[in-house]
Amino acid sequence: MRKLLIVLFLVSLISACQRPDTANVNAESPNVKRYDLRGKVVSVDKAKKSAKIAHEEIKGFMEAMTMEFPIHEDWVWDDLVPGVEVRGTLVVDSSAKDPYWLEKISIVANSAPNQPTVEEKEPEQVGKTVPDISLTNQDGKRFTFKDYRGKALAVTFIYRECPLPEFCIKMSKQFSDMANQIAADPEAKDRVRLLSISFDPARDTPEKLKQYGLGYLGKDAKDDLTVWNLAVGTDKEVRAVADFFGLKYETDANDKTQINHSLVTAVISPEGKVTKVFTGGRWIPDDVLAELKKANYNSPK
User: Fold this and answer.
1) Global pTM?
2) CA–CA separation, 111 and 218 (whole Å)
3) Which residues, at least 6 apart from 5, have a Cβ–Cβ distance to it below 8 Å?
4) How far apart are CA 168 and CA 174, in angstroms?
5) Nearest-CA neighbor of 191 among 268, 132, 273, 270?
6) Checking DSSP bridges between strand 192-198 and strand 228-232, what pairing results, if any?
7) What is the distance, to the nearest Å, from the Cα of residue 64 to the centroid of all Cα atoms in its chain?
8) Span 33-109: which CATH code?
9) Strand pairing of 134-137 and 228-232?
10) H/E element holding 274?
11) SS3 226
């Protein structure tokens, strides 16, 4: 009997060692959300494991637009080429390393044989003059885009309570980093400006935006919100600016405190014309700084 008990104990011990830890299998944040996505691949970046996709409206999340998506699955890269139509699941999880990504991707239609692949079109705003819309800056002063004439300007969009590390938090971190670099450059500090526009006028007052900006600049900041401005306006004003630049945003149907939105960053010449538009958040400060320098260099003296 004693030998039998020992054998049963060893069997149970071996089984326990081989059994997966069910507490950790499929562990997932309770905040994760999934949405069906369908669209056409515009471009792929295998090195970054991402694809730019012109997708249809994602019901309950965002309107149709072209956006870059991280993709974790390795099998897709032989089949995921510009021009193919795909379906997949958009996963949104603010607590993950990538706050959003695509999974369960399937090819639903290949590009026609012997046809050129889809080329990414230049955004329609490039070459256009920015409408002279009024906004209010972090000091409570009204201004229009004409007030930036004579300086190269980079514009992006944020809202203060955005929880996603790769969205507004990243945009503000990169704009504050650029602001400190520009402020420390004797030539650039008088010729370059940065502007972050909030699309949450109900909560983002000028005073709150000022504290937000100073917090990102840090205690050893070179800038004092002279180079980097933050602004807000009425719903109508903000929507007009966002529409011009192609920014999409709407209140989350399931959580009214959150705003679902795309990412757009644009560079404007000293003459007030758009020279470059970055969609998504995969740009780095050097990319925008180079475009600002180019905009100033190409400006008539």
Assistant:
1) 0.69
2) 49
3) none
4) 10
5) 270
6) parallel
7) 15
8) 2.40.50.320
9) antiparallel
10) strand 274-279
11) coil
Q: Which fold has domain 134-297?
A: Glutaredoxin (3.40.30)
At 63 the pLDDT is 81
DSSP per position, 102-138: EEEEEEEEPPPTTPPPP-PPPPTTTTPBPP--EEEET
DSSP 74: S
Backbone angle region of 60, left / alpha / beta, with phi > 0 → left and psi within -120 to 50 → alpha: left
Handedness of CA 31, 42, 125, 187 (dihedral sign): positive
Query: Does 205 have pLDDT greater than 80?
Result: yes
Say if residue 247 is exposed, middle or buried (CB neighbours under 10 Å; 0-12, 13-18, 19+): buried
Is there a contact between 92 and 103 (Cβ–Cβ < 8 Å)?
no
Q: What is the spatial distance between Cα 63 and Cα 123, in angstroms, rounded to a whole number?
A: 17
Tokens of 74: 């390795």
Residue 274, phi then psi, degrees to nearest 5: -70, 125
> Which contiguous run of DSSP H or E holds residue 52?
strand 50-55
Q: Which two tokens stand for residue 193?
A: 């400006």
The residue type found at 230 is: L
Domain range list for the chain: 33-109, 134-297
Structure tokens at 247: 């920014």
**Three-state secondary-structure class, residue 256:** coil
pLDDT in tens, 71-83: 988 878 878 889 8
Per-residue pLDDT reduced to its tens digit, 213-235:
999 999 999 999 999 999 999 99
Q: Which residue's structure tokens are 């980079």?
A: 154
Q: Is the pLDDT of residue 26 over 80?
A: no
227 Cβ neighbours under 8 A, 6+ residues apart: 179, 182, 183, 189, 192, 193, 194
Instruction: Identify any residues that bridge with 274 across adjacent strands, giving them in sequence order.
Output: 268
Q: Is 44 helix (H, G, I), strand (E, B) or coil?
A: strand
For the CA atoms of 285, 159, 64, 289, the dihedral, rounded to the nearest 10 degrees, stands at -10
